[in-house]
Structures are given as structure tokens and as C-alpha cells.
Amino acid sequence: xxxxxxxxxxxxxxxxxxxxxxxxPESRRTVLGPGDDCAIxxxxxxxxxxxxxxxxxxxxxxxxxxxxxxxxxxACATNLADIAAMGGTPTSLVVGLAAPADTTVRFVEDxxxxxxxxxxxxxxxxxxxxxxxxxxxxxxxxxxxxxECDGVEPVTRSGASIGNVVxxxxxxxxxxxxxxxxxxxxxxxxxxxDPAAVAEAWAAHPIEVSxxxxxxxxxxxxxxxxxxxxxxxxxxxxxxxLDARRIAxxxxxxxxxxxxxxxxxxxxxxxxxxxxxxxxxxxATIPSEFRVIGRVAPGEGVLxxxxxxxxxxxxxxxxxxxxxxxx
Amino acid sequence: xxxxxxxxxxxxxxxxxxxxxxxxPESRRTVLGPGDDCAIxxxxxxxxxxxxxxxxxxxxxxxxxxxxxxxxxxACATNLADIAAMGGTPTSLVVGLAAPADTTVRFVEDxxxxxxxxxxxxxxxxxxxxxxxxxxxxxxxxxxxxxECDGVEPVTRSGASIGNVVxxxxxxxxxxxxxxxxxxxxxxxxxxxDPAAVAEAWAAHPIEVSxxxxxxxxxxxxxxxxxxxxxxxxxxxxxxxLDARRIAxxxxxxxxxxxxxxxxxxxxxxxxxxxxxxxxxxxATIPSEFRVIGRVAPGEGVLxxxxxxxxxxxxxxxxxxxxxxxx
Lengths: 327, 327
What we know:
The structure is a homodimer of 327-residue chains.
Chain A lengths: L7 H4 L1 H8 L9 E3 L6 E4 L4 E10 L11 H17 L4 E11 L5 H18 L4 E9 L4 E9 L16 E5 L4 H13 L8 H10 L1 H8 L5 H9 L4 E5 L3 H12 L2 E4 L1 H4 L2 H5 L5 E6 L10 E7 L3 E4 L2 E2 L8 H4 L7
Parallel strand pairs in A: 4-5, 9-12
Antiparallel strand pairs in A: 1-2, 3-6, 4-6, 7-10, 7-11, 8-10, 9-11, 12-13
Helix pairs in contact in A: 3-4, 3-8, 5-6, 5-7, 6-7
């Protein structure tokens, strides 16, 4: 990485943590914050939503394409989206970070700043309440998010029923286009990243590149959908088709998309936008954050304009990771 | 690793998860279990304790010294201990696992079995409610534990006051002796592990080796201490002296240990036993799980028999990790 200055190996665990803590966002639900064996978080309605995700250098991000700030932003945003996809409101995060000893303290501080700005922008009142710092040959983040449902029933994947309207809030396909642009312009055939080309990609395609590196999932739309009576919901992390198939399977129905209202193939198969995909009763008032893109139908799997759509879509870290390709 | 059979790269993420789920322990507080964007956990008293830890191949365990079962057991036990150290009862865990694609499915199943058996033995009713699986050049576990306080106030590090009795539940120094035995017998000067020598170490020193590889922290003692009026508590993960210094600093006092009641130097400085270290009012009835090992005194830091103890003790992953030494 390009930053200079002291490394976390020079400074040690305790001093690095002391520099990170003031940068992190605070949770409005904190009863006891970082620094003890546990944090304690208030959960007024007596149910807590919990989700965890790993972000690993290589399959999930590359240093050079992503800054530390980008890595922190995305790690935060993707976990917030999982809480929102239950109809919940994110309240707190704990973050494990492992990195090589020669990682600069500055890089780690930038990760913390990314967490701060993503939480502040996407889920105000959600904060980082604890974590762990260790050493590994690559950079890895392990983020766990907690959320509250505050009186609404959690929205699962299994409640869709025939005749429901299928709607989406947020972007579809932009993050994949951003990744394609970055690989086309900035990654050579050996997997090396050209920093100048990354800057040019940002300048030429800021919407697509930021969708990939600093996604802005519509976190508030999750609770709005739950209050509007959503029957099933998830966030589109692995691509619309693959994730819709998960709702279809869990609910024992088919989902039939209207291609004209979705757009192009990238929107059907590209992942990482973390849009909210929700099903609503046909007589529900669809919240303004959502646009209708299909219907729940009898059968199984995913249809497009009534025709079975069999392309796998989506992403498996073992099958699909390549150092030199965005495919 | 020595196991043969299909690898997680052969089988893929979904099929590996399908094989793991039935092996995992179930939580008695589950409202919604694994398989959705989040799990939902009941928190009857409206406060949840949360802690997270990374376990990384290299600094935290070595494959060959530890089996997959051992890795899962220890990852579970150490996180349970952090909940117990607040006076809480562990209710649920989420687990991120990253491993090379050539890791056998069997190894991952063994990790799950280790989680199952540790949770069942140490904190019945606590289960794994979610997780993530990805690929990395080494094996890494990221565990987050949730717990409930069920009517007792969480016990922090900062409440010790002068005159309090200092007591400990669980082992001190055994885990460090186990690590020394394993390195002496089974790790050569290049850091290579001899499996036959590991088996001999288990046979010759089962108490010490199991304390290192399959620690059994006294999880129930945490809540017992809280109910008995403990003023401060933590689990001894980085060594008695280093961790006692954390209580002393947070509470603005000194902690004076009685060497005769502690034993030897390994008990003062060896880490990873995850004993519960607690302070009690002088007129409290000390629970039977605890033995008195010192007093809270005026001043700062740690004393032994009234004399300032300055040896650092404890462990920093950046400063202290060596591939060939247990020191």
C-alpha cells in the first residue's frame, strides 16, 4: 500500500487501538462501550438481529483498487444492509481486523474513518462498540452487526406468496459495472494494480466505481418495507437472480421479473449493490423508495418475462475468485 | 493437514455450509436461526453483551498441534469466557471461517464439532446462529458471542475498590505449560510440527496439553460472581499480571497478590487459561468456585506480596509471535 509512516507492528496492538477508538462512530444504544471484556447494548424490544461477514483481501477487495477508507466503508455498509433486509435498524457493530505487521497505522485509521462515515451516512446512531486486532499475512475484516426491530416483525425470506408484488429499492448492476471498469482499466494480466489508472477510473466513471468501492445500500428502506407489510425481503448481495431464487426457494414460489422494468443483464446477475428486494401484498401501498420489478408466481425458481431463467448468476468465493478477472 | 477427502474448494460454499449446519449447537434463545440475512435472538432483559475475537493460524493456533476440533473448541470457549467475565450467560455465537480452498470438508466439520462440544460442556443452551464462509491463504476464525445479563448488573473492570478481596476461579498457568510442552516436544527449529510427538505430549501431559488446546473456562462462575456482588471482573486471557493491571488501571487502584496462594511464575504470567479474576467486597461471601489470591490496595499497578511487579507478562500478537517458540 502506498501510505508511509509507522506500521502497526512498530506501534503494537494497544497503541494502534488507542488511535482507532476516537475515530469510530458511536452507538446511541451503548450501555457500555469498548474497552471491557464485552460491550453492552440496549435492546428495548427484547429481540436482537445479528449478522456477520468476512471481507478478505483478494476475493473481497484489493489494496490499491480500494483504499483503507473504501474497505472500512464497504465492510460497514454490507453488514448494515443485512440488518435492514430483516426490517431492522442497525444499532452496533463489532469489528475484527487482521493485517500484516507492516501495515501502516494510517491504513488502519483510514478503515476506521470509512466505518465512521458509512455508519453516519447510512445508519445514523449505529456505532462500533468493540473489536479485535491481530496479525495475518493478508488484510481481513470480520464484521458483526446488531440491530433492533423496534416493534415490527422481522421480515424473512420465506413469506412470499403467489400474487405478491416484487419490488426493489436501490441500485442493480452498478457495482458490477464499476468492478468491470476497474479491472479493464487498472488491473493487468498478472493481477497488478495501476494506481494512476484507478484514479482515472474514478474520474471517468464515478457513479459505477463508487457503487463498487463505497456502496450506499438504502438502509432505511428495510424498516419502511417492514412497516408497509413486506412479506419477504433480502438484500441483493450475490446478484438479483441468485438472491431472488433464495426467496423463491424459501417461500415455495417462483419470482417472475419484468425485464423492461429491470434494465439489462448486469442488473439481473451483477452482485454487491445491496439493494433491498422485497415482496408486498398486492393491495399494499408500495413505499416510495421501491419500484415494482415483478410478481410472485406459482412454481419455483426465477422467471424473466414468464420464461425460466437458468443462468446461475451470483458468486461463490471458492468457484469464482480470480486474481486477474472481475468475472 | 492430515485428513483426506473432498475439499471445500471441490464442494463449494453452499454444500459445505449444508454439511456444517446440522453439527452446530442450537441456542435456546433463537427466534430465527441460520439461513436468512440475520438471525434473531431473544434478549428478555433488554440488554445484550457482545464480544468478538479472531483466531488466526500462526499466532493463535497451528494446524498439526491443533486439530480442527481443538480449533473450534478453543474459539468457542474463549468467546464464552468474555461473556462470563461480565457476569453474563452466553446465548449465541456467529462464526466467520476463512480457509484455503484445499482445506478438507472434514477439517471444517471437525471445527463445527468442536464448537458443539465446547458450547454443550461449558454453556449449555448457547448455540451457533449464523456465520460466513470464505477463502483465505490461512485458516482464520472470527467469532462473535452474545450474552444476556438476566437481571444482574454487568460487572466491568472499573469497579474494584480498596480493601476488596481478589479471587480467581479456574486454572492459572496450565495453558502456558501445555504450550511449552508442545513446543519442546513437537515443534522443530524450523517451526515444523511432528504429529507423533503431539500424540506423545497428549499422552504424557494430558492436563497441561488439554488446558492449552481445549481450555475449559469456568463459564458459570461469572454469573455466580455477579450475583455474589463482584465489583470488578475479567477473564485472564493474556496472563494474570497483565490482566490484573487492566483492572487496577480501570479502577484506579493497585492489586496485591499473595504469591503463596497463586503458586509459581507461570501462574502469574502465563496466558490463555481464561480463568475468572474477580474482586469482591470484604464482607461478601466468596462463591465456592473462587479462591482468594490477593487484595485491592491503594496505588496503581500490580504488586506481589506488597512489592511492585514490573515484568510485562502477557502477549502482544505483533511483538510476541514467533513461528518456532512458545515464548
